[in-house]
Amino acid sequence: MTAGQRAPIIRPGNFSFVAAADRLRSVYDGYNEQVLFHQIDVDFDFIGESITQYWDLQVYFHSAGKFIVNRGITGDTTPIMLRRFPADVIQLRPKYVHILGGTNNTWRLDAVDSRERRTPEQINYEIVGNITTMVQLSKSYGILPIVGSNLPTGKDIPCFPFEPLIRCPNQSTNIRNELLAASNHALKQMAANEKAVYVDYHAYLVDSDGKTLRPELSDDSLHPNVLGYNIMAEVLRKSLFANGVVI
């Protein structure tokens, strides 16, 4: 391909409603085109929400010499992750995809508008179903899926501007954490059935009550700080190594 030609790429475009993913769509389209134009062999692709976007992967995994892309988007939910999966994962053809999402789905527990509200059962079904589809899509293109467990949350989650329909302050910590634990259990079973790698971050970040996030690992009861990411990186490294994968 010459310097004057551009590679054809998948561009999902913006969604027909207010979606957090729209804020980075043009950015990631540009990144994806650059990867494809230069025919870069991608080793790992991380797709998810803010916990993924805020993870500086180069800091933790540069020593293995792998090419890693980060396609996390703050405020993203699993239905939108699935809709952008062909653009942000499949067309880049990574060897491995790390999938981490579902926490943002749970904000619907506290929706002010009853039409937007969802039960724990509905949210669990959505998380597990969407991530299962991503896993199966990955496998169909020869990409090995890595499924990360959702993290527990703390008791003092602030109000986030990307969810204007949600009651503040956060009112559903216990329900949310029980829901996330249940979805993690289902994701672990699914990963075993699909022969995907499962990474249990939750077990290493949860407090002694078995439900909430250890307070020293986050500054806002939701996103890991450097201490939290240190643990996550080590858990991921060891989990992958146990499956013959080096990152």
Automatic annotation (TrEMBL):
Q: Domain (SGNH hydrolase-type esterase): give its ranges.
A: 47-230
Question: Which residues, by range, are in coiled-coil regions?
Answer: none
Question: What residues form the membrane-spanning segments?
Answer: none
Recorded hits in Pfam families, A to Z, give:
Lipase_GDSL_2
This protein's source sits in the domain of life called: Bacteria
Q: Which SUPFAM superfamilies match?
A: SGNH hydrolase
Protein name per the record: GDSL-type esterase/lipase family protein
